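Bench notes, afternoon.
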Amino acid sequence: MTKGLGEGLSKNESSITDNDAATEDFISGAEKRANRYRRRKKKAHKPCIFSLTQEINDDINKLVLAPKDFKASRSDVIKAGIEVLKRMKKTELVEAIRRII
């Protein structure tokens, strides 16, 4: 008997049963199965600082509360606004910006 292994335990790998092999196969495949459920890496975000009037700040805070089935952040509201602006015709975009200035 090898010292420290206890009675009935040995380093003889020929004693592995089919059940042991199935268990080892299951354990070794856990990483692959877990990878299916991991989130994809999100794009890196760059922190930005810009000034807003109190009114626009309050508007963003209200817009954050609009979705009832998911949580939105202030950044999400800004990103959604940018997406809407990107879809506008150039003349509409210029007019919208002109109204703000």
